[in-house]
Amino acid sequence: MLVAGSALGLAARESYRLLASGALTLDLGVGRRLQPLPPLLQPVRAPPEVVFDVIAGPYLGKTPRVLADKLQVWERASDMVLAEHFTRVKCGSTTTLETVRFQRPERIDFRLVRGPVPHLVESFLLTPNEAGTELRWQGELGTDLWAIGAWWGGRVARSWTHAVRVSLHELAAEAERRTHTGRRESR
Hints:
Mean pLDDT: 92
Largest sheet: 7 strands, antiparallel
Number of helices: 3
Number of strands: 7
Order of helices and strands: HEHEEEEEEH
Radius of gyration: 19 Å
Strand content: 35-45%
């Protein structure tokens, strides 16, 4: 009995690790629950075109070495890429495979192909304003298996939202740096 309990515990732990890392995606289509991700707003003191270039550049152009441990583009087209993302989370690292579509200069859409949940769509929306740009992130996450899937989705949503919040601050800082550097160079 003790051996069976230990084996079951190890199997559950390994399953959790595989799910959290994105190596295992349960897409059963049974008991699917969708939940909106809380929108995040990031003011950026840079024009939308600059913000768009900061986000899209590593996907559409050559990916900088500094992002090699976070991003690998598998396939590039003029308005869409297939990219693998590596994100540090509490229990290690999560790997996702996503399509990324570009609508210059106001929108970038992501759709999960493989990852810790079977359904995830998200968008960066860039709206010009007096200060520069309002960068808005919004999305929807879906899980299967009713209540247990909803529990898992809540855990993934918290980690995902935290990772995006950090990225938004980094994107804003880089877009503002480029804008201020450009202003100094034009003087």
